[in-house]
Design brief:
The complex is a heterodimer. In chain A, strand 19 (360-369) and strand 20 form a beta hairpin. Chain A is 4% helix and 53% strand. Chain A is mostly beta strands. Chain A contains 1 helix and 21 strands. In chain A, the strands form 2 sheets. Chain A has an 18-stranded antiparallel beta barrel. By secondary structure, chain B is α+β, with helices and mostly antiparallel strands. Chain B has helices spanning 2-26, 29-51, 55-70, 285-290; strands at residues 75-85, 91-101, 109-116, 124-128, 136-141, 146-151, 177-187, 190-199, 206-214, 220-227, 232-244, 248-258, 264-274. In chain B, a hairpin with a 6-residue loop joins strand 8 (190-199) and strand 9. Chain B contains 4 helices and 13 strands. In chain B, helix 1 runs antiparallel to helix 2 (29-51). Chain B is globular, with a radius of gyration of 25 Å. The chains are: A mainly beta, B alpha+beta. The A-B interface holds A 24, 26, 59, 67, 94, 96, 98, 103, 105, 112-114, 117, 150, 152, 157, 206, 208, 213, 259, 261-266, 297, 299-300, 305, 307, 339-344, 369, 372-373, 375, 406, 408-409 and B 84, 86, 90-92, 116-121, 134, 136, 144-151, 153-154, 156-158, 160-161, 203, 205, 279, 281, 284-287, 290, 292.
């Protein structure tokens, strides 16, 4: 964190010293509430929470081909102190230009990148840490310090990353819902002696050839997804005597993502091979995992402007019950209805079903503009069934209804 | 083409010959010779009239002339405001920026960046258009920093909830349609050529467009859009033409009316800038990620 603040500050000072050509500020404040109708599985958990999120983006165009972007975010949560947190989502310099028949781009500072083609979960996307307290499923990202060089030409896009600092995953605190039964320690340990300062490297080559868009990626460094070490609580404050401490290991991951875009359907594939990480039972296991998906959009639904996108995704992890993620053999079906009306009304419904355990959940989302500045969003994730053998079991009572009002200015 | 002329001439001859044969039965053979002479004398004329272009050819020629008068603009950028009125009188505006790069022998490369409403700010749409082949299209979603390839074959979908379909926002190429000349008629102080345009793309939402184009500067003033059931669905009108680089005409205002729902959309173009030497690298996926 200290490292990233230094990064951010450095960037900011540099940018303000420069003579900015244009200066643009966009901000967003959102008021949020979540209700959990079922009584909690663990004593300390709250049954509702309210809060506020403030986010602002400052963009300075230094020259026509260089800029500085700064995006701080702060969340306040009345129930879970771990959820009250701030993050510098972005604080980077960007410059770009042409070199012979190629173009290049250098991004320096804290930023996030998106890899992959699937909707529910992206196996290949491992550069940024997940800001888990923000949302249980959407995987919002913590800003990642990076040196990101892109070179692109007719032959494709090659991107190299130097990642000098590791961000720890955020976890809900004891009062929070959607958490494991054991408290998760704020301390973390690292497999590598350099700890969070280990220099990670990543590389990605992507290209569009006819109807195919594909990417080949590689990551060598500290895993963003922790393993957990169990400790006896020194001062047991709850009825739980064990604490889990995140342990970040070194890993190598090779990934491929492909999308085939035809006139009727999109076909999607993500696959990874990961080496050097421990499975749920603490044994080191090399494994592969796959996502297969397809997507179809119907336009002018019932002769209206509305469009409906339906998608199906299958997530598979070769470790099965030894997997550290919840996506072991799961099927996700989802529909996205966009009314294309004046208020930009959108409706999403999805069903996630574990094909091995008895876990089913339904997600619903409704979004609509109230005015030019205000947006209203209603969201719910409902657990339809849960299985004591599955790692989702600790969240079995955590079906929720969330509402947020966002004001943009 | 020659076959075509031949067959017309042949049919004509046969018809006249049959008539003259009727004559043979009842009238003087000299008349047959006379009639045949007339046929021989007439046939070059009939050949000329058969060579005269068909309504389809004339329509195509007019469309080509209009397209050629716009060729070579190279690139331009502009700002757009859309005023959307729904059938209940609800109004909303969309603001976006647009830039386009002309690509010789292929469809243009273009980029829309949305500025307003706020919840879609920074969303961008990159299109690499192709002639009689599906376009390539990518969407940039700023909240996720995600570039997503989308299927561009469905062009009839509404653009940003407006009465404009994606295909209306796209500069079509002449080869993507067939044409038919209908008539010339006065339109305001000008004279307009009226042609019909039929899309070759089966996925187009239209069966045809009737286009009013003036004879002097080849500007479009009105288009009547017919849906697949051949009923008059929408009318697009153009106003406030301005000329750029002493050559290229652009309408600052386009109004699309939907006759079925009563909804309408006014599209206003401002800040036209031609000849900024936009580079191809500004129409790539890496450029899309830089969009502000």
């Amino acid at each position: 964190m200290r490292y990233s603040v230094a990064f951010a500050l450095l960037g900011f000072i540099g940018a303000t010293c420069a003579v900015a050509q244009t200066f643009d500020v966009t901000s967003e404040i959102s008021l949020q509430g979540r209700w959990y109708p079922e009584s909690p599985a663990f004593l300390e958990q709250s049954s509702s929470n309210f809060g506020m999120v403030a986010k602002t983006t400052l963009h300075l165009e230094i020259t026509s081909k260089s800029s500085f972007t700064f995006t701080p975010l702060y969340r306040y949560d009345n129930a879970d102190s771990q959820r009250t947190h701030g993050d510098v989502r972005e604080a980077y310099f960007l410059m770009y230009g042409d070199w012979r028949n190629n173009s290049w781009e250098l991004q320096l500072g804290q930023a996030s990148v998106y890899w992959g083609v699937a909707e529910l979960y992206n196996l290949v996307d491992v550069v940024n840490q997940v800001d888990l307290v923000e949302h249980p499923r959407n995987r919002p990202k913590l800003g990642q310090p990076m040196v990101h060089l892109t070179v692109a030409g007719d032959w494709g896009i090659a991107e190299s990353f130097l990642l000098p600092y590791h961000r720890k995953r955020t976890f809900p605190g004891p009062a929070g819902r959607l958490r494991s039964r054991f408290p998760i320690s704020e301390n973390a340990s690292y497999e590598h002696k350099d700890g969070e300062r280990h220099m990670d490297v990543a590389f990605r080559y992507s290209n569009s050839v006819g109807p195919y868009d594909f990417g080949l990626s590689m990551f060598i460094g500290t895993n963003r997804e922790p393993a957990f070490l169990a400790f006896q609580q020194p001062e047991p404050t709850t009825h739980q005597t064990l604490t889990l401490q995140p342990h970040y290991e070194q890993m190598e991951q090779f990934g491929v993502d492909v999308q085939l875009t035809t006139s009727v359907l999109l076909y999607k594939l993500e696959a990874i091979q990961r080496r050097g990480t421990r499975n749920l039972f603490g044994e080191e296991e090399n494994y592969h995992a796959v996502i297969l998906g397809t997507e179809h959009t119907v336009f002018n639904l019932f002769n209206s402007a509305a469009s409906l996108t339906v998608l199906a995704e299958w997530l598979y992890d070769a470790r099965g019950s030894r997997a550290t993620t919840v996506w072991t053999n799961d099927l996700f079906l989802s529909g996205f209805l966009s009314f294309n009306d004046v208020a930009g009304t959108e409706l999403v419904a999805g069903l996630l079903a574990d094909l091995e355990y008895d876990y089913r959940s339904l997600n619903l989302e409704f979004k609509r503009r109230l005015s030019d500045s205000w947006t209203f969003r209603l969201e719910s994730i409902v657990n339809l069934s849960s299985d004591p053998a599955d790692i989702t079991y600790d969240g079995r009572k955590d079906s929720f209804l969330g509402i947020d009002f966002t004001f943009g200015f | 083409m020659e076959n075509h002329v031949f067959s017309v001439q042949h049919a004509l001859k046969v018809r006249i010959f049959r008539k003259s044969r009727d004559f043979v039965l009842s009238v003087n053979p000299c008349l047959v010779v006379f009639a045949l002479t007339i046929v021989v004398w007439l046939s070059p004329i009939s050949t000329v009239s058969a060579q005269e272009e068909t309504a389809e050819e004339k329509g195509m020629r007019i469309a080509l002339a209009a397209s050629e008068s716009n060729d070579g603009f190279g690139d331009f950028s502009a700002e757009l405001t859309m005023l959307i009125r729904d059938r209940r009188g609800g109004e909303s505006t969309r603001q976006m920026r647009f830039k386009v790069l002309e690509v010789p022998d292929d469809g243009d490369k273009s980029l829309f960046v949305f500025d307003h409403p706020r919840d879609v700010k920074g969303t961008a749409l990159l299109t690499h258009a192709h002639i009689n082949a599906p376009d390539d299209q990518w969407m940039y979603l700023p909240a996720l920093k995600k570039v997503k390839r989308i299927s561009a074959s469905e062009r009839s979908g509404s653009f940003m909830g407006s009465e404009f379909a994606y295909e209306d926002m796209r500069a079509g190429e002449v080869a993507e349609y067939t044409y038919k000349y209908l008539r010339d008629e006065p339109c305001g102080e000008l004279t307009c050529t009226v042609i019909e345009q039929y899309p070759l793309d089966e996925k187009s939402g239209y069966s045809k467009k009737v286009i009013w184009q003036d004879t002097e500067e080849l500007r479009s003033w009105k288009m009547e859009l017919y849906d697949r059931k051949d009923s008059h669905l929408k009318t697009l009108t153009f106003a406030s033409y301005k000329q750029y680089l002493d050559m290229y005409w652009r309408a600052e205002e386009q109004t699309m009316e939907n006759h079925l729902t009563g909804a309408s959309t006014v599209l206003k173009w401002t800040e036209f800038e031609f000849g900024s030497n936009l580079d191809e690298s500004e129409f790539t996926q890496t450029a899309l990620r830089r969009i502000r």
